Amino acid sequence: MSNTALRIVIADRQQDQRSKIENMLNRLGYCRVAHLSSFQALQAATRTQGTPFDLLIVNTVLVPSRQFNLLKFCHDNPRIRHALIYEGQRADSSQVSVPVNGRIQLCLSQAPDFDSIKRCLHSVDPLFAR
Predict the structure, then answer these.
(1) Residue 32 in contact with residue 6, Cβ under 8 Å?
(2) How sure is the predictor about 66, in pLDDT bands with cuts at 50, 70 and 90?
(3) What pLDDT, in 10s, does the model give residues 78-116?
(4) What pTM, to 2 d.p., does this model score?
(5) CATH code for the structural domain at 8-124
(6) Which InterPro entries does the record associate with it (predicted)?
(7) Which DSSP string corresponds to 18-84?
């Protein structure tokens, strides 16, 4: 069982990567998925008033500078309830999921796979865990 009303946004430059992640979410019953392809679009989407995003899945490659703290951006932004942050450029096949707090999840080494998305959703969606 999943909460189909969750608002999820995928932020990645690569359209095929956004589609892969969306397909995994769809298989798990989540259909309210938006796509963003730039950091500027992400900033604009999280600046406006309205209902917060329940989950942001974001590739660190979107960040224009290594000096920008994406974790702090996600943590301090009231429009982002949970975030799954991943590095899409490394060829490393190991994957580390780290719960930073109740809101933020990190998936540091590569794009999320089906299992990492499921693990993340256990924290995001109370109905998913049942």
Answers:
(1) yes
(2) confident
(3) 999 999 999 876 444 444 455 556 677 676 678 899 998
(4) 0.86
(5) 3.40.50.2300
(6) CheY-like_superfamily
(7) HHHHHHHHHHTT---EEEE-SHHHHHHHHHS-SSPBSEEEEEGGGSS-TTS-HHHHHHH-TTBS-EE
